[in-house]
Amino acid sequence: MPIQSINPYTNKVVRSFEEDSDEKIENVLELAGSTFDFWKDTTFAHRRDLMQQVAAELTKNAGEYGRLMTEEMGKPLKDAIAEVKKCASACVFYAENAAHFLADEEVVTEATSSYISYHPLGAVLAVMPWNFPFWQVFRFAAPALMAGNVAILKHASSVPQCALAIERIFLKAGFPQGVFQTLLIGPERIERIISDDSVQAVTLTGSEGAGSKVAQLAGKHIKKTVMELGGSDPFIVLSDAGIESTAQAAAKARMINTGQSCIAAKRFIVLQSVAPAFTEAMKKYMLRMKMGNPMSEEVDYGPMAREDLADELLEQVRRSVELGAKIALGGDRPAGPGAFFHPTILTDVRPGMPAYDEEMFGPVASIIAVRDENDAVEVANDNRYGLGASIWTQDIRKAQQLARRIQSGAVFINEIVKSDPRMPFGGVKKSGYGRELSHFGIREFVNIQSVWVNGTQKALPNATRSGKAE
């Protein structure tokens, strides 16, 4: 069955690829195993130099890679180029910090010497989504490779050109063949990869359903997993928030990537005293955003990634309205080609509606009016997901107190939720488990080894112990 790259702006097939054969899968797995045998013993300095070359390639050709993303999934070109540059920054971050993050840690015990050391596991299988086709890959690959692992990418079938381009980037930067490999396959063939002895861990970013299936397969074969799944992030607006600036941020938070982001604000939980003014202001800022050809620098949002995704979102809106939600803006799709969806605001949103209970993966904002801060926290936590949240107020101390009560992997105060290589990223509840980015991310896929030494001979210095001396 062919894997197709379809431009969501025109709905035309750009390129078609045949799925990789069983023989190709076996070759990739064999190469991953043999490559790991020597890659794990390379020094941090060597890996650092190669990873910096990756960053340089991304920076130099950000326009080329950005256009590829825009063509395959409809992201506005300016945002796609920014995504490529963010990938470069993650590569630099781990190139500069991996040795420090994975240095031996002395522990004071009654032993002559005791310490914790970190060692790579093997091949890491990454099952990645289409919505951030470069960033999702590089934020796993940079730490995994710097730790001494090798990687196998099974990307979303709708972005095969991006998947192949990323493999070429690592090769062009000088990484040996087998350190990073891409497979063009469907989900039904993932178990063969997970079951292989060379594969020791699996990371997935995607839907709750996909995460559940892959986690079951990994569990069957006793493989470590990190799951970054869905999100329905609350955007809490207290009564003392500046309405105009907060509403402008809210419009941006909802419309990033045409609303197709796990950490996009989706539920806008607003105190009743300011809800009407906030709704009107947010409506104003969403109307100012320009829709059109994502290749144009003037466009703020393009089509959704696929026609079926736009149709699914429209059905969620329709069912919510049937159950009593009111349309304050949009609510439908424009006529003509392309997987477009009008920016939409729903009010009077209550439990039992898709707009309240489900993840709305597109440009639809649900506004939920609440009586006070306690109600706001209750509504924020009344959801199956727990990825990110934001609180908007002038009372920073109150916001910090409320943040401790919110069930999410991240809370941003007076800022939209975003990922940053310096901070851990991940969720709780049905948003998954484990962490990416920061030192937590690079330590997810290593063997954390305890070493206890008794004896009179002097212990080895740190760098020699780790086997990765500069």
Q: Over the alpha carbons, how many angstroms does the gyration radius reach?
A: 23 Å
**Count of DSSP H/I helices:** 16
DSSP, total strands = 20
CATH topology of the largest domain: Aldehyde Dehydrogenase, Chain A, domain 1
Structural notes for this entry:
By secondary structure, this protein is of the alpha/beta class. Helices cover 40% and strands 21% of the residues. The chain has 2 domains: 264 residues, Aldehyde Dehydrogenase, Chain A, domain 1 (3-Layer(aba) Sandwich); 181 residues, Aldehyde Dehydrogenase, Chain A, domain 2 (3-Layer(aba) Sandwich), CATH 3.40.309.10. A hairpin with a 4-residue loop joins β1 and β2.
What is the topology?
Blueprint: E1 2-7, E2 12-18, H1 22-39, H2 44-60, H3 62-73, H4 77-101, E3 105-106, E4 113-120, E5 123-127, H5 135-146, E6 150-154, H6 160-172, E7 180-183, H7 190-195, E8 199-205, H8 208-220, E9 224-228, E10 233-237, H9 243-255, E11 265-271, H10 275-287, H11 307-322, E12 326-329, E13 344-347, H12 354-357, E14 364-370, H13 373-381, E15 385-386, E16 388-392, H14 396-403, E17 410-413, E18 428-429, E19 432-433, H15 438-442, E20 446-453, H16 462-466
Parallel strand pairs: 5-6, 5-8, 6-7, 8-9, 10-11, 10-16, 11-14, 13-14, 16-17
Antiparallel strand pairs: 1-2, 3-4, 4-20, 9-19, 12-13, 15-18
